[in-house]
Write a structure and sequence with these properties.
mainly alpha; 2 domains; disordered N terminus
Length: 198
């Protein structure tokens, strides 16, 4: 029993070390994608051997970084309660949450996902949650009844991608960007005279 108690802080400490390395890797690789393991170790405030002990290669570190960011991305969507919250509320919350992840983990989120079943499952679940949210939004009248949901989702993803390029790190700015994304998705940018049927 006593041994178990002694091991817990070690596990927590190891977890903190890994997180510090991943956060440093994100910062360093965002500034210089060719940065070395040594530069990442220095930024994390750990010995180079510590990084090598946790990650067998630079590629393994980048894969772990991508997997970590994917988990944050999945949590960002899930924590907006897209299946239960009012659709418009869930849409704004998911957008703001995802923008925070995409901005904070820009290097990792721009990488091709590693061949990791967990990463694939997370992306598939985010896609399914988004599809269900858009379906609920259409049923609630937030989206037009004739909305092509697959197209709307692709437009939404593109808007989030463009908004994330702003690289704003202030929470208020992220909320403004989320509002801009959702308002553009729902209302577009055209005026009354822009209808083809007019």
């Amino acid at each position: 029993m006593e041994r178990k108690t002694q091991q817990r802080p070690l596990r927590a400490d190891a977890e903190r070390t890994v997180r510090a390395i991943l956060e440093a890797a994100e910062r360093v690789l965002s500034a210089n994608p060719a940065a070395t393991m040594e530069q990442i170790a220095e930024a994390a405030g750990v010995a180079r051997t510590t990084v090598h002990r946790r990650f067998t290669s630079r590629e393994a570190l980048v894969d772990a970084l991508t997997a970590w960011a994917t988990r944050q991305f999945h949590e960002a969507v899930t924590s907006a309660h897209p299946d239960t919250a009012p659709p418009l509320v869930a849409l704004y919350q998911a957008t703001a949450n995802v923008l925070r992840v995409k901005i904070g983990w820009g290097f990792a989120m721009s990488r091709t996902a590693p061949e990791d079943p967990e990463v694939a499952r997370a992306h598939a679940d985010v896609l399914a949650q988004c599809d269900r949210l858009f379906q609920r939004a259409r049923e609630a009248g937030v989206l037009r009844r004739d909305t092509d949901l697959a197209w709307a989702r692709r437009v939404y993803y593109a808007l989030i991608h463009e908004a994330a390029q702003e690289r704003s790190e202030e929470a208020d700015d992220v909320d403004e960007l989320a509002t801009l994304v959702v308002d553009t998705l729902l209302r577009g940018v055209g005026g009354q005279g822009g209808s083809l049927s007019a």
